[in-house]
DNA sequence: TGGATTGGCTAGCGATGCTAGGAACGATAG
DNA sequence: CTATCGTTCCTAGCATCGCTAGCCAATCCA
């Protein structure tokens, strides 16, 4: 491969990143409704069709943002668990708290990950690594005897429900900490 | 008011119902993406603008379907709880099972209630009665000492998370019963 | 029977996601 | 240095979306 085409590929990768970050910023500042292909193209200072030379469609762009979100979430959860590395109540509380904080701090990102139609596939062999990493953080909060995966699924479900019901004002946000404490108290391995 | 205008008002109310049920049927058979104002108008054999003489917009139509869903869900949860009228584990298991069954049996309806943009407002004074009724069914599964509302919120959150993660294939559906058992075992008042 | 009112329709607006087709650019061979 | 060839990217447009303006006809009251 020539140096020229290497440079071009590098530039292409840069533009790929530019599109993803522009979509994310636009969604975070004005909501996903504002992320139209036209506005996104204007933002990256290219015409509309170049988006389609990088992504199969809008769903793929949302998927790329969502994948970025899963990476950051995995990092946050991992950081929280390193504060309490042993399975048990403290670990679970730290990880669950980090999860809810993330969802509340990055609502647009969270929507891309769970609400919006995107092209990510779950619970299959080709599940992207960052998503598995998120799940594994929950798994490691429970002792390997017992059934850590089952507990992790229930934990994740409950947190997701709390996050989305809180985001859409179906439950009061002020009491989120109490709900978190209750959930952890009931699900965590002792101690 | 004359008999003539009474008849017209009756016919209007009929057409109102017709629109809501047509929207629901279309969503259940082909998904909400297929529910466009044009297809809906064609289905009820009127032109597009008549929809807007009944509803403020598409969100209001979705909201009407969602409200219908909350009514049916409240009935299902109430029926389940009447099988085990005392607060406790049996009541909670029955109600939670009915909730998950409902979400799995009526995915389009469930989407209208929780996923899609609609014009229903929650956690406020004007929360529609069927929605309060759903919540109250969870509350009554817990003893009035303790904190039944808090437990109800966590329960509902967990169920919602399980329903949506299962619907979008983020967790395996086959293990839903195990998750349900675990959730109930951990949250229910003894016995 | 004539004039006002109401109700529904046709037609169209702006915006959406996405695509075809050609223009202009840059790399390479003579 | 020039001519050719690919590639890249833009202009323009399609079908469809939610929604609305404005007219036409049927209906109601005098």
TrEMBL record, chains A, B:
Keywords: DNA-binding, Transcription, Transcription regulation. The keyword Transcription regulation applies. Residues 13-73 form the HTH tetR-type domain. Residues 36-55 bind DNA. One of its GO terms (molecular function) is DNA-binding transcription factor activity. This is TetR family transcriptional regulator. It comes from Stackebrandtia albiflava.
């Amino acid at each position: 491969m020539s140096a020229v085409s290497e440079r071009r590929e590098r530039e292409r990768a840069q533009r790929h990143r530019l599109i993803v970050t522009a979509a994310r910023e636009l969604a975070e500042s004005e909501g996903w409704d504002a992320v139209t292909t036209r506005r996104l193209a204007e933002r990256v200072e290219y015409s509309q069709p170049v988006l389609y030379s990088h992504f199969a469609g809008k769903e793929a762009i949302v998927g790329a943002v969502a994948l970025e979100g899963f990476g950051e979430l995995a990092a946050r959860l991992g950081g929280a668990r390193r504060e309490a590395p042993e399975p048990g109540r403290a670990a679970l509380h730290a990880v669950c708290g980090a999860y809810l904080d993330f969802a509340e701090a990055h609502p647009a990102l969270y929507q891309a990950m769970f609400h919006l139609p995107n092209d990510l596939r779950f619970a299959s062999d080709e599940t992207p690594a960052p998503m598995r990493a998120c799940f594994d953080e929950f798994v490691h909060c429970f002792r390997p005897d017992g059934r850590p995966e089952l507990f992790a699924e229930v934990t994740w479900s409950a947190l997701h429900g709390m996050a989305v019901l809180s985001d859409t004002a179906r439950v009061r946000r002020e009491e989120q900490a109490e709900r978190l404490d209750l959930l952890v108290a009931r699900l965590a391995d002792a101690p």
